[in-house]
Design a protein that fits this description.
Elements: H1 2-7, H2 11-23, H3 43-50, H4 55-73, H5 78-81, H6 84-93, H7 97-107, H8 113-134, H9 154-184, H10 189-209, E1 214-225, H11 234-247, E2 256-258, H12 272-285, E3 288-296, E4 303-311, E5 314-321, H13 335-338, E6 361-362, E7 368-373, H14 380-388, E8 393-398, H15 408-423, E9 427-431, E10 437-439, E11 456-466, H16 470-474, H17 477-503
Parallel strand pairs: 1-2, 2-3, 7-8, 8-9
Antiparallel strand pairs: 1-11, 3-4, 4-5, 6-7, 9-10
Length: about 525
């Protein structure tokens, strides 16, 4: 241990260690998907910040760890953003600087049992606020939230129905803090053990108490995934392939057919020939088609990404325009300042336009669906609102064709499990090039994934459930609780600082001399 401490005395070595420690949690996400690793992945980072010689150094350890974390969970963006990925990771990593300072404040030195117990509440709350801030769409959205690593764990999905992915992140960080206290702070081991026992008890109680989705019917929904199509006329070739795959679905008594994001490269008002071909497919298969249009609109200026419903008589008029766009991928923030990014990466040459409201579509057979486009499936509030507005099925249309061979497609597909569990609604994640997946109302997988090597049309028997989960009813209450904890902390720290200042304040007037004192001969 002393050898490690000596090695870490070098600021550069310590910074590199913090970056590596911050990157460790990525192994809990797909593709490695070592979900159990999440419960100890933060321990090296916590130990490092705890041992910092000063609060300033602990904040720097938090920043470096945040940089490593953001770089690791977004590493697949490197071919698209080039040097920008490092700049973005460094800027967003700053959010973890106060978290690093708090780690040392509560766990540094020889903390009392009270400080150790406080760490089990304050540090997960501070982490949750970091996730809240970076979840803003302008900062890249909530991709890589720590709780999302638990997408395939049954008890965790039950917890998600109560408090969303936020509750999962809080508990994962709390377990990491408890483990850190157990291995490094002898004086606070009792509250650490108590915290682990309480977490296990709370998980078990939630498993028994939380209302389970009651499946009352099912829908037959087909996903059409054409796979990778390249060449100078790739848009037309892809449309033709999707057309041929869709024809194979005729006679299978379907409720809906879903194509991926950007599956149609022209506005259907400008291309009535494409609209006629789609309506012919609807008549042939007996089901409406939900297609993804990425094109300049004919009825208003600008390029939109949209979900468009097409029936046997053509477009039905139901349309959803994407509201939350991918920074740099679909628009360049502050283009006047950062427009040069288009010359060093695959940043958007022209900004897409935003939609103004979410839409629930009636696709017939009494089935109502709520579409989301691309990384909108990472935002728990959007799926929650669709469920509250009456959607029976959540639909995610995506592409990820730019990131074949990376961890991005599997990570993206896994998010649908959490959105399903949070809302108690099944979710269909349909892509152009994989991974496509379907999850039931409890977040359980329905049927096989369509991987990045698949070109197929597959029918899924999607179980339908109704009712309202606690998360849909009460919203992001774990975030509200975390903000309250930090507000109380700030108030108590402010009061403590005020008391210290008053107790150490110098008298306003010099003390009066007694008759024994002589100004000419001071005391010796």
């Amino acid at each position: 241990m002393r050898t490690i401490d000596r090695w870490l005395t070098s600021p550069w070595r310590r910074s590199c260690a913090a970056v590596l420690a911050g990157a460790l949690p990525v192994l809990a996400f797909p593709a490695p998907s070592l979900w159990w690793f999440a419960y100890g992945a933060l321990v090296p980072w916590l130990l490092l910040a705890r041992s910092a010689p000063t609060g300033r150094r602990a904040a720097y350890d938090g920043w470096c760890g945040g940089f490593g974390f953001m770089l690791a969970v977004h590493h697949w963006l490197l071919p698209s953003l080039h040097v920008f990925i490092f700049l973005i990771a460094a800027l967003i990593g700053l959010l973890w600087a106060p978290w690093g300072w708090l780690v040392r404040r509560f766990l540094g030195g020889r903390p009392s049992p009270g400080r150790g117990a406080g760490a089990l509440l304050v540090l997960p709350s501070a982490w949750l606020v970091v996730e809240l801030v970076r979840s803003w769409q302008g900062l890249g959205g909530p991709w890589g939230m720590l709780g999302a690593s638990q997408w395939q764990v049954g008890p965790a999905l039950r917890l998600a129905s109560v408090g969303g992915v936020w509750l999962l992140s809080f508990l994962v960080v709390a377990v990491n803090v408890a483990v850190t206290v157990l291995v490094s702070v002898r004086e606070a081991r009792v509250p650490a053990v108590a915290s682990l026992v309480a977490t296990a008890a709370a998980t078990s109680a939630t498993w028994l108490w939380a209302p389970r989705p009651h499946v009352d019917s099912q829908a037959r929904i087909a996903v059409v995934q054409p796979g990778v199509v390249t060449g100078p006329h790739s848009a037309a070739a892809r449309f033709g392939l999707e057309e041929r795959l869709t024809r194979r679905l005729a006679g299978q008594d379907l409720d809906l057919i879903v194509w991926g994001e950007s599956s149609v490269g022209h506005d259907l008002r400008d291309r009535p020939d494409l609209a006629r071909r789609l309506s012919a497919l609807s008549r042939e298969t007996g089901a409406d088609l939900l297609v993804g249009v990425d094109a300049r609109r004919s009825d208003r200026p600008g390029i939109y990404k949209s979900s468009v419903l097409v029936g046997p008589d053509g477009p039905t008029g139901d349309r959803y325009d994407k509201m939350r766009l991918v920074p740099f991928g679909e628009y360049v923030p502050a283009r006047a300042l950062l427009g040069w990014a288009t010359s060093v990466g695959r940043a958007a040459g022209e900004d897409r336009r935003r939609g103004t409201e979410q839409v629930v579509m009636d696709v017939g057979h009494g089935l109502r669906v709520g579409p989301l486009i691309c990384f909108e499936t990472a935002f728990p509030d959007m799926s929650r609102h669709l469920a509250g507005d009456g959607a029976d099925v959540l639909l995610g249309q995506s592409s990820t064709s730019s990131f074949q061979g990376s961890w991005a497609p599997a990570q993206h597909a896994s998010l649908a499990a959490l959105r399903a569990a949070e809302t108690g609604r099944p979710m269909v994640h349909a892509t152009l090039t994989g991974v496509s997946a379907v999850y039931g109302p409890g977040g359980q997988r329905v049927g096989p994934w369509l991987g990045t090597d698949a070109s197929a049309a597959r029918v899924y028997e999607v179980p339908l459930a109704h009712g309202v989960t606690p998360y849909v009813r009460y919203g992001d209450w774990p975030v509200d609780g975390a903000l309250l904890v930090l507000a109380v902390l700030c108030a108590s720290e402010g009061a403590r600082a005020l008391r210290l200042r008053r107790s150490g304040r110098e008298p306003l007037a010099p003390p009066a001399r007694t008759v024994r004192e002589s100004p000419a001969r001071p005391w010796r």
